[in-house]
Write a structure and sequence with these properties.
By secondary structure, this protein is mainly beta. It is built from 2 helices and 15 strands. The strands form 2 sheets. Strands 1-2-3-4-5-6-7-8-9-10-11 form an 11-stranded mixed barrel. A 4-stranded antiparallel sheet has the order 12-13-14-15, with no helix packed on it. A hairpin with a 4-residue loop joins strand 9 and strand 10.
Length: 318
Amino acid sequence: MAMRVWFGMRRAALWGALLLVAGVSPRTLALGTPHNPVDEDLQMWNQLVLWSPEYRRLFALAQVEPRLGENITRCRQLLLRGGVFYRVNSALSAGVTYDWRPDFYPTRRVTQTIAAQIDVRQRPVREIQIAHRFRYEHRFFKDAPHSMERLRLRHRLVRPLGKSPYYAVLMNELFINLNRVNRTPAGFDQNRAFIGMGRHLGPYAALEGGYQLTYTRRLGASADSLYHTVVFQATLNLRNVFAHPKTQAEAPPVEKSSGTSLYAPSVLAIARDDSPDRFGAGSLLEITTPSSATTIMPTGISGSSPEPAPDPVDSAGG
């Protein structure tokens, strides 16, 4: 077990190094513009993310995220986000969010953002989960003549480390401004690359931590920004807290013997398209004895843990 975790960490570190070098090099992302001086800073972002229980495919998001800067000595920003989403199917959801983000330094101002968001989830191989997030943002500043339109493209990869509750995370997010406002240019805005690890804490909670490198482009005499950020995230995912397996009608017995009836329906009785896909396909096994109550369980699933840990790709991010 320890060796599997070790090799998984080494592989994740290698992928992350390649991602950081190829994805966030200032020379690569400057897109041919004149080179600006770079302002570097060590920061810490602490994210608390809550997903509400799902009701008729609808669920809500709440997020609080204080961001510390100046070498983690003072609060630079506070991000408050709320949203409502609709689950189209087990791999696709869409919704709208509202952000309220006050900046405390170097200038004091408030940014408000209304965004449309689409989340797509994939599992190309059994162990690896990939989530794509597409956000179209309308950003409003007090000193801006009009709103700023921005497109964000995030790709996030999660891989469990053996059979342990730990998992490795790789993430890259590209920000593209669709118009210019003040000193913020149209075109490439910033890029975030993240490498880290997470741990499941019971059936509905998870903790993540890691390193994020953010490069932001600026116009004119303003220095470009290069932030080295330590990120911690706590996620409470209650989307499936009220989900229950669906059972089919009782099938005729296929075998009888001295007080015991064995039923084996071959239909899919769990994880329909209109319910969260948690258990996958399987058959039901019903065993009835005169001395005990009827028990219906999906084969291969323990009755003591009906809900698995939350999918780590559901984390909201910044």
